[in-house]
UniProtKB/TrEMBL annotation:
InterPro entries: Ig_E-set, NXPE4_C, NXPH/NXPE
Superkingdom assignment: Eukaryota
NXPE C-terminal domain span: 307-512
Protein family according to the UniProt entry: Belongs to the NXPE family.
An annotated GO BP: nervous system development
Organism: Cyprinus carpio (Common carp)
Protein name in the entry: NXPE C-terminal domain-containing protein
Amino acid sequence: MGNGRKKHPSPNILSQHCAGLQKPLNSSSPAGINSKDSEKSQSLINSIYSEFGISLEDYLRLQEAVHWADPDRSITNVSMSTSPAHTTFIIENLKKSYQTGEKLFVTVHAKDFYNKSKSYGGDFFQAKLCTEYVPLSQASVFGDVKDMLNGSYSVCFLLPWVGEAQVAVRLIHSSEAVQVLKRHRDTDSDRVYFNGYYEGPGPSKTRLSETVMCNVKWDKNGLEHMGTGDCCCEYKDPHTEEIWRCQRPKSLPCSALVYHSMGGYRNRLTEKEKKLIDAGKCVAQKRGTDVLTLRQFPAGFYLNDVWTSFVCSTRHFTTQMTSECLKDKQIYMMGDSTMRQWFEFFVKEVPSEINMDVENNIDLHWRAHGLPLRTEKTAVADLHYISNEINGLAGGPHMVIMFNLGPHFTTYPLDFYTHRVLIIRTAVLALLQRAPDTTVIIKTVNTGYKDIFGSDWYSLQLDKILRWAFQDVGVYILDVWQMTACHYSKENIHPCPVIIKNEIDILLSFICPVMCRKNKCVLKTGHCS
């Protein structure tokens, strides 16, 4: 996280920053790509990624990161899929008591609805260790799930607190349901559509208005259903070169597009697919003793509603400390409604006048990310791409830029999302070259979605792409995945205030590793830089 803050690589050389990605276990070739796919992959790279300097090797590493195991047989009925009721887990080498800091291992055995053991992987499980509900003493931590690719899954926890706990394992999607998600992402991306509102002068001083359907222009994955030829108005951003397309209005010119909004959802699942998607969503629990997570690195745990990070030294900021931390800073926040939760927290926390704290010279800005955006009716002129916003900022030691990108892209092909992320990456690298003291923070995706329009599995895939693109760039990646997944509160893509406050504490610890009081500066050792 943020390695080499002063060493920013050249924007057009990505290959040197991909060496840290490891090949998946039990995989003889990257992401299952064989020689037959090589020509197709090279063509794709040449057409989409060449401007970013991405080689075939880089592209294959990305495929490794998002690879997910498939069933090894044809699924003829839903009963062949993983059954949450029949699936079991055991705690390996269970002891009467444990020391904090020890590891706890759990093995999950997947079974189908016939109670037969599964022989292949690909199920999407989430696991956590938590206390039973006791007011003011809630504790929980996320578990690292490893697919053994044979119907078994190994879960690892670290034990961070003293007391009793339960192991909870949840089947989010069976491997068979994941295939449904994949298919609809690859063939049915227009299942989420948008409205474009055209307005203009009519006869006798009247006003004309039309509402039409809009979406991304990608010409595959179902997005070509909008039409061809002269069917549509196209709006190509001169900097990103991405194209937004709307059906051509009957009585107004293309230049009359004024507003944008969410249009609607099309659920094209077959009855069998619906049953596969709904067949999971079960929690199995078993009491243990005391325990923590391990995901590549332990992220942290909740105790008494306070998140303790294992990644960096964090503090818990009062209103006064927040104002001191943000004093003399320009804060630019860009993204979706989950990022706006942070913005709204600061608006309430920091006494301000039109998002400007005059006394402390805190300048706070919010901007929703560009299209596609599932939102209420809003002016098109207010929707700016993140990369364009960053390109328009000078940067500097008093500027903090934070953004997120994910939930509004879950239905689109991975190549589209990757292209958007790489455009932002190029803008960030250029910013850090001209102003290396600028603080850039990327917020990862939240958990909470479980359907065909926004599953956690979709979000996890996007999260892997984001990390792949920004590794070793010199930015902070604030990982909130585990923070939103393991808290005891009701699942929600917009987490409760307790979780938001803990996220903000980590955010401020990134921004202010040094706090000055009464002309004395204290550097927190092991801070988040």
